[in-house]
Amino acid sequence: MYKSRIIVLLIIYMHVLPKLCFGQESEYQIKAVFLEQFTRFIEWPESSSVSDSSKPFIIAVIGENPFGPILGNTYEERRIKDKDVELRYISSIDEIDSVHILFISDSNRKILPDIINFTKNKPILTIGDAEGFAQKNVLINFYQSDDRIKFEINEKAVHESGLVVSYILFNLAKIVNPIRG
User: Which residue in 24, 40, 87, 116 has the fewest CB atoms around it within 10 Å?
Assistant: First the structure.
């Protein structure tokens, strides 16, 4: 019952509510909430620190922060995977290592290959909202279509990351680089 409510919420947010009803701040409020919503459909490997209840769930933004204070306001009292959330605003690749979600700002387009090379084969959920990021191996990328906020998933990059993504999330997304069975 709980998962079906989340599915309905995802569908409403991503496919029904037009972007034109929201300003930029509201757009990033929705995206901030979806960071947590995505985690409900993703499993991290046992070897990751997600399974250690004494450590926080870490969300990092690398580059310019398009969220402004929204992430802090959203996750001040919210938990992910039954863990406190720690936010980090980072500027270099060597600060990525211990994060669970990495939001890659469009300001990092020039160093995106280096970021992807660093995160490849690691259980780090990379998320962006810049055109072409999913095709360049960012796992989940927000995009605009029909005046709505939608998302695409790079299936091959997800498979290589070691994260297990529910078919429910795949069904709601546009699939980039599908794995042929």
Answer: 24
